[in-house]
Design a protein that fits this description.
By secondary structure, this protein is mainly α. Helix content is about 35%, strand content about 0%. It has a domain at about 15-40. It contains 2 helices and no strands. It is elongated, with a radius of gyration of 14 Å. The protein starts with about 20 loop residues before the first helix and ends with a helix.
């Protein structure tokens, strides 16, 4: 039988690139091309 979902959904916390209060980490992530939209996906 074909499963509609082969893999379980990833935990949203695995996508965290920086805390909102950590401006330096956000700037580093932005310099790598990470956007808030990318993180929200």
């Amino acid at each position: 039988m074909l499963s509609l979902w082969d893999e379980p959904a990833a935990d949203h916390r695995d996508r965290i690139v920086a805390r909102a209060a950590d401006r330096v980490a956000w700037l580093r992530a932005r310099s790598r091309g990470v956007t808030a939209t990318d993180v929200a996906r």
